[in-house]
Amino acid sequence: MEERGNKRLVVLGAGESGVGTALLGKKQGFEVFVSDRGEIRGESKEVLRRFDIEWEEKQHTEAHILSADIIMKSPGIPDSAPLVVQLKKKNIPVISEIEFAYPFTEAMLIGITGSNGKTTTTALIHHVLKGAGLKSKAAGNIGKSFAEEVINDEASHYVLELSSFQLDGIVNFNPHIAILTNITPDHLDRYDNDFNKYIASKFGIVKNQTPSDYFIYDADDEVINEYIKKHPVQSKLLPFSLKNRIEEGAYLENENIIITVNNNKFIMPTADLALKGNHNVKNAMAAATVAQLLRIRKNTIRECLENFHGVEHRLESVLKINNVQYINDSKATNVNATFYALDAMKSSTIWIVGGVDKGNDYSELYALINEKVKAIICLGVDNSKIINAFGNCVDNIVETQSMKEAVQYAYKMAERNDNVLLSPACASFDLFKNYEDRGRQFKEAVREL
């Protein structure tokens, strides 16, 4: 990137990505201003003061913002926000933190997106790279912001979990290895309820790739296959599949994962994977394909897949009380994630569900609910859609407004060998700060029983 002199960078939103961008911008010689329509957290204010960065909260002063040369917008602010529309009319570039940060590192970039599985896949790839002794950093939607990691830029590889909102704000960003775990309807409220706009957003991860880059994706996902047919991808395709034999990429045969990359074969029994379930076989395929591309020793790949036990809030076993297993899947913020969770349940389940609905279609869960769920506990400000969707599937539906109350109901209903599963299928912002807060409150309530 050319020397910017004292160009003016305005950062909208002082969350993790906003503060990281402000600090990186300051280091790179920008004149930086941070503006947040809400209240800025105390520790963030301290950091901004310490680095002598100007900021405002509870307002967006247009005069300060419209004078920007470049705007970094927090992923939480929609493109339809009046201020953003105004900026675009004035032809002021509005980009994401990922786009801002990537020119300031020479490290290899591995980008992971998808409706589900991206956090586990990101954490798993990072785990394998670290196991191989590489200087890997996991960032983006996981850990610290990418911009903050790039300030000291000590990594040889960045493994980046990327949301569709982050990809919406890219212009030239290009990961050398891109991974698309799957595409199912999610966040449709941000895409004018148009699934095609959401699909195109996810494919932003490959839009700048060249034939010397790689694209790893789920070949069992019809949505992905259809898009690739109509919009050819420039990079080298390395699909993975549980159903079909794959020449270059990964497939399943006789309960063995078989991966072929550049005539190099890797074979591993699925029984040896620490994480169970078909969706985790796919996550392991994606991670092992990356490891093969990077020529990591096969023994190292095997060991890392055998000892990786998952991420917090994703099908996390909390406690067994009176032979009832309590499971925290707070990270399930859409229907497809909850589908995987219910599918993984091996015994009768009390299901805690609800929150901010993002235009969910619950019909794909009906068969699993009939088979596995004996009671539903609604945990949200407005539960009417859930009650209408599942009223005929189970006899027992209760409504609650607090996690403590939800867990106490579950405790009373549960019998020996049951599961109590928190898998909300919704965003958390009505009753909680975020899905982590929701998951931690669940774990605390379980421990207090």
Strand order of the largest sheet: 7-8-6-9-10-11-12-13-14
Q: What's the CATH class of the largest domain, please?
A: Alpha Beta
Oligomer: single chain
Q: Judging by the overall fold, what is the CATH architecture of the largest domain?
A: 3-Layer(aba) Sandwich
Per DSSP E runs of 2 or more residues, the count of β-strands stands at: 20
Reported by name, the CATH topology of the largest domain is UDP-N-acetylmuramoyl-L-alanine:D-glutamate ligase
Q: Give the overall silhouette.
A: globular
InterPro entries: Mur-like_cat_sf, Mur_ligase_C, Mur_ligase_C_dom_sf, Mur_ligase_cen, MurD
Function: Cell wall formation. Catalyzes the addition of glutamate to the nucleotide precursor UDP-N-acetylmuramoyl-L-alanine (UMA).
GO molecular function: ATP binding; UDP-N-acetylmuramoylalanine-D-glutamate ligase activity
Binding site for ATP: 114-120
Key terms:
single chain, 449 residues, alpha/beta, Rossmann fold, UDP-N-acetylmuramoyl-L-alanine:D-glutamate ligase, Protein-Tyrosine Phosphatase, Chain A, 3 domains, nine-stranded mixed beta sheet, six-stranded mixed beta sheet, 20 strands, 34% helix, globular, cell wall biogenesis/degradation
